[in-house]
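Bench notes, afternoon.
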Amino acid sequence: MMLATLLLAAQTVVAPKVAAVVWDYPDAIASEMVFVVKVDDGAPVTLASADSKIETDPAAGAGNSTYAYPLPALKVTEHTVTVKACSKYDATICAPDQAVSFRLIVMPLPVLQLRAK
């Protein structure tokens, strides 16, 4: 599980500085799969592999492509996003969930114009 900390200016409902979660998947079987993405306790979203594929990332390695899911606006707190690949023919046949967790925080600013009076 990966942990990332994002710094935000105000404690409100915000779009994170990280705009999406991305993952890699083998090209040889991607067309036979759908990806199921879940953010926190929200409803799962099913994506056809063709709808979520982005340009090939060299970090994905030969024979793999990179896929993405844009994150919704998130509150300042901890979040977990899970992604799994499932057969497009039978949604009950799925690989195990893979998860990434991160925490959105409010970065305190220093006090301004500190002085004795």
